[in-house]
Design goal:
With about 500 residues, the protein is of the alpha/beta class. It is about 40% helix and about 15% strand. The structure holds pyridoxal-5'-phosphate. The site of pyridoxal-5'-phosphate has 17 residues, from helix 11.
Length: about 500
């Protein structure tokens, strides 16, 4: 199995090489040349644990890793970092099923893939005889930075530097990052907004002088962002696992089609569900749930992708995105793997901020778009709580709303993909349930949430209380490069 670009570069790369590179040189994304198939009836996976299912999925895509290497990566990733051995439990509340992807260290679904990425990456470096150490560099608006820090902390042959906009992330997010342990981690606040951080990071990635300097010191840059196949492929595993769990629970019979409703921003999570379908997991419809930044909903309705619109700040900030990078992979596959046609559309996106696809898009019928207003989100959190005492976060609520709405038109069983713990977005969640519980004190809110939800406060939150501040660097945009250089020792 080899990987090629969505934009026409015909060079082929093994999975491990694609993971090291992250992005193709022509600006495209790596895609498998063709979809592999599970090669066994899905029923064969029934009764297996998370790691075993993950192995059966990963081995199809990451074919240049040996069995021993893959199992080693999986074992290191899905261990006691997660607060349940199930890793991704499936829960029924009321008449909805929830796939809980927030049991990792930072209580959101990015942990699912970021827990394994460092191991896939360091293994890839060894396999390809690359002796340089890696510097992971990330600009973050809050969540990804912390998940990447936790993932790479104390991983051999790696260092990680995270830049965040000083004053531009939530209190709890900043606290999570500046208390980060690990002697290979560095966190820097930047006097600027997220776009300033992101642009400076992009410039440094392609700064030749800086790259030479790194190379001389025995380092190279890498990124941990969601377009890396090392993040995408591990996400396919939990869709296979969810299917298996639904069969085990008797919610569906083996072979029956199952729908998934996914709260979507960058389109990585839902694309993994699409990949699961294409390897032979009996997946029916993929319901793409958007918040008020409903660029994807409009796209599925009209075939026009148009990011020229106001950016709306919502209570589901991880979905406040107007350019869904991973959608490019779906476009490419839907065009019958036509890289030229895809590249033309992506050029339109870069130049005009919009593109239009024709009607002959092969996979469009696999998807349905639904969006939720801020009121819908609030009402859904309250309704689910009143009905079953279960508290969902704001992102999950976007999906739960969409799931409910879509059910009217399709009688297949569906699973709501739950991407964050309510403890991650306490103020918005408590405001939906009982506004009098909202306060300025995060730990007081955690106590309240624990009382109403009867779910103990997760370690990710309680550990923050009294945690020592280990990172206090603040710099201007111009000084960011110097911060990177200071790591080359
Ligand atoms: C990142 C994120 C999403 C969006 O996932 P994509 O893969 O970017 O579509 C949804 N919910 C939460 C909590 C997230 O952190």
């Amino acid at each position: 199995m080899e990987y090629i670009s969505t934009r026409g570069d015909l060079r082929k790369y093994s999975a491990s090489q694609a993971i090291i590179r992250g992005l193709c040189e022509d600006g495209g994304l790596f895609v498998p040349e063709q979809f592999p198939t599970l090669g066994m009836p899905v029923g064969k996976l029934v009764g297996k644990g998370y790691k075993e299912v993950a192995y059966e999925v990963l081995r199809l895509f990451l074919t240049d890793y040996t069995e021993e290497e893959l199992k080693d990566c999986i074992n290191k990733a899905y261990d006691s970092k997660f607060d349940t051995e199930l890793i991704a439990p499936l829960a029924k509340h009321g008449d909805q099923y929830f796939l809980e992807l927030f049991h990792g260290r930072t209580i959101a679904f990015k942990d699912m893939a970021l827990s394994i990425l460092p191991h896939l990456l360091t293994c890839a470096l060894k396999k390809n005889n690359i002796r340089e150490k890696v510097i992971i560099m990330t600009a973050t608006s809050g969540d990804t930075g912390k998940a990447a820090l936790e993932a790479f902390a104390d991983v051999e042959n790696t260092k990680i530097i995270v830049f965040y906009p000083k004053g531009g992330v939530s209190r709890i997010q900043e606290r999570q990052m500046v208390t980060q342990r690990g002697n290979n981690t560095k966190v820097v606040g930047v006097l600027g907004n997220f776009d300033d951080c992101q642009s400076a990071v992009k410039r440094m990635f392609s700064d030749e002088a800086l790259n030479d300097e790194l190379s001389t010191a025995g380092y190279r840059f890498s990124s941990a962002n969601s377009i890396n196949i090392g993040r995408l492929i591990p996400q396919v595993a939990y869709y296979a696992y969810a299917y298996v769990k639904m069969v085990e629970m008797g919610a569906i019979s083996e072979g029956e089609e199952l729908n998934f409703t996914v709260p979507t921003g960058n389109f990585g999570n839902i694309l993994a569900a699409f990949y699961a379908k294409n390897i032979g997991i009996p997946v029916g419809k993929l319901i793409c749930a958007s918040n008020e930044n409903k660029v994807l909903y409009d796209f599925f309705q009209t075939g026009v992708y148009d990011k020229n619109r106001d950016f709306i700040l919502t209570t589901s900030p991880s979905m406040d995105i107007l350019i869904s990078s991973n959608l490019e992979r779906l476009i490419y596959h839907s065009l019958g793997n036509d890289a030229k046609a895809n590249a033309a559309l992506m050029r339109d996106l870069a130049e005009k901020g919009r593109y239009e696809v024709g009607s002959a898009m092969k996979y469009m019928d696999d998807f349905a778009g639904i969006w939720a207003t801020e009121d819908n989100v609030k009402d859904t959190i309250k309704a689910v709580y009143d009905k079953c005492g279960y508290i969902i976060d704001t992102h999950t609520a976007v999906a739960a709303f969409a799931d409910m709405k879509y059910k009217d038109t399709d009688n297949r069983t569906s699973v709501v993909v739950s991407t964050a713990s309510p403890y991650k977005f306490m103020a918005s969640v408590l405001a939906a349930i009982d506004v009098s519980l909202v306060s300025d004190d995060d730990f007081a809110m955690a106590e309240e949430l624990s009382k109403v939800s009867k779910v103990p406060i997760p370690k990710a939150v309680s550990d923050l209380k009294g945690a020592k501040i280990l990172h206090d660097k603040v710099c201007s945009v111009e000084e960011m490069k110097g911060q990177v250089e200071s790591m080359l020792v």
